[in-house]
Amino acid sequence: MKFLIISILILLCGAALIPFIKKDFKLKICTIFTTLSSLMAIAPAINCIYNRIGFNEKINILKNFGDVYIGIDLLSSIFVIIIALMSLFGVYYANGYLKPYINKNKAISSHCSFLMILIASMLSVVISNNVMLFLISWEIMSLSSFFLVLFEGEKKEVRKAATKYYFYHCNDDFINKCVK
């Protein structure tokens, strides 16, 4: 279980570190941190599946919010493996996808940071055994993916898609009024 917590912390530290790294190394650092995090997240998930036993742990993030419980069972371990593997594929795809933007001197700090925050929040969603942690993780996941969609925000259709994504939970009439 400690590996999952460390995995999430690695991603968050990497996301915080990205703005302070030279432009040429941002994507490499994102790839290294995500790879390390994914491998660390897969280990307890495979252990849970192999031994057919789940893990629960109480962590004390902030004393004002009370005890926060995280855990992994057979179902969440499958999701952890899927998230970790797809994160690996996604970050390696991003290496090729972002090369034209790097060549055009477009800032990719936000993309790298929000990608790592998205992965960390997805992992947090599936291991949370606490409603408050689940909701906070879900909102962080939604906001970080919104900013990933908005990466090419200079294009009108991208801004429209990002706005639709953000208001997706609202009814369609409200969305259509917002994006006209």
Overview of the structural elements:
The structure is a single chain. The protein is mainly alpha-helical. It has eight helices and two strands. A hairpin with an 8-residue loop joins strand 1 and strand 2 (68-72). Helix 3 packs antiparallel against helix 5 (109-127) and helix 6 (131-149) runs antiparallel to helix 7 (156-166). The chain starts with a helix and ends with a helix. The model has no long low-confidence stretch (mean pLDDT 85).
Brief synopsis:
With 180 residues, the chain is mainly alpha-helical. It is built from 8 helices and 2 strands; from the N terminus they run H-H-E-E-H-H-H-H-H-H. It has a two-stranded antiparallel sheet.
SSE topology:
Blueprint: H1 2-17, H2 26-51, E1 55-59, E2 68-72, H3 74-97, H4 99-103, H5 109-127, H6 131-149, H7 156-166, H8 172-178
Antiparallel strand pairs: 1-2
Entry keywords:
180 residues; mainly alpha; two-stranded antiparallel sheet
**What separation lies between the terminal Cα atoms?**
47 Å
Cα-atom radius of gyration: 18 Å
Biggest sheet: strands side by side, in what order?
A: 1-2
Shape: globular
Structural class: mainly alpha
Strand content: 5-15%
Order of helices and strands: HHEEHHHHHH
The proportion of residues forming helix, as a percent range, comes to over 70%
Low-confidence stretches: none
